[in-house]
């Protein structure tokens, strides 16, 4: 039961098979076709390989991003100290303002 003209599996079908996105019935049909079709078998192997490579790269960049974020709080400390300085300055200003208001 192929919806497209080609007797072979569609690339999206191969992708979905690799990602586990097919229904059990579709998966069975796809696997049956792969078992008897060397051309689709090769395409499936290449899909799997490139998807794994992509996932590997993604994992690597995700890990780098996580590492960067973990290091960030330490890096942004000076800015936070500066912010607290500003808060203290504002509080002092408010206290001085209140003192002047009370006096005047
Ligand atoms: Zn085929």
What does this structure look like?
- The chain is mainly α.
- It has one domain (11-103).
- Helix content is 84%, strand content 0%.
- It contains four helices and no strands.
- The chain has helices spanning 11-19, 24-36, 38-75, 77-103.
- Helix 1 crosses helix 3 and helix 2 packs across helix 3.
- The protein is rod-shaped, with a radius of gyration of 31 Å.
- The site of zinc ion has 6 residues, from helix 3.
- Beta strands, count: 0
Query: What is the tally of helical segments?
Result: 4
Tally of distinct domains? 1
Give a quick account of the main beta sheet: strands, pairing sense, barrel closure.
none
The hetero compounds bound to this protein are: zinc ion
Using only C-alpha atoms, the radius of gyration works out to 31 Å
| Mean pLDDT across residues | 86
- Give the low-pLDDT segments: none
Which structural class is indicated by helix and strand composition? mainly alpha
Distance between the termini: 90 Å
Query: What amount of the residues lies in strands?
Result: under 5%
The share of residues in helices is over 70%
Which H/E pattern describes the elements? HHHH
Shape: rod-shaped
